[in-house]
Amino acid sequence: MATALLILAGIVASAAYMLMVLQRVLLGPLNERWKAMPDVSARELVTLVPLLVIILAVGLYPLLVLHLQDASLQALLQHVTGR
């Protein structure tokens, strides 16, 4: 029981340290030369929105893509199992 608690404390301490380091590295103060840069342009939105729609569609209904693999997977299963 004591070993499990020690391991749990180590995991929690490691996670806290990792989050602290990530916060300092990635979420530090904004560099002055990037303040004037816009967030997203219309051109970037035109490319990102279709990708987002495809990602959401495949994530919510994966059969949209999985049915494309059905024939080759069936052939592979027949080859492997010999049926």
List keywords for this structure.
83 residues, flat, mainly alpha
Structure description:
The chain has about 80 residues and is mainly alpha-helical. It has one domain (about 1-80). It has helices spanning about 1-25, 40-60, 65, 70-80. It is flat and about 60 Å long.
Task: Give the helices and strands, then pairings.
Elements: H1 2-26, H2 42-60, H3 63-66, H4 70-81
Rounded to an integer, what's the Rg over CA atoms? 24 Å
Q: Report the average pLDDT across residues.
A: 92
What fraction of residues sit in β-strands?
A: under 5%
Discrete helix count: 4
Q: What's the main sheet like? A: none
How is this structure best summarized?
With 83 residues, this protein is mainly alpha-helical. The protein has helices at residues 2-26, 42-60, 63-66, 70-81. The protein has one domain (2-81).
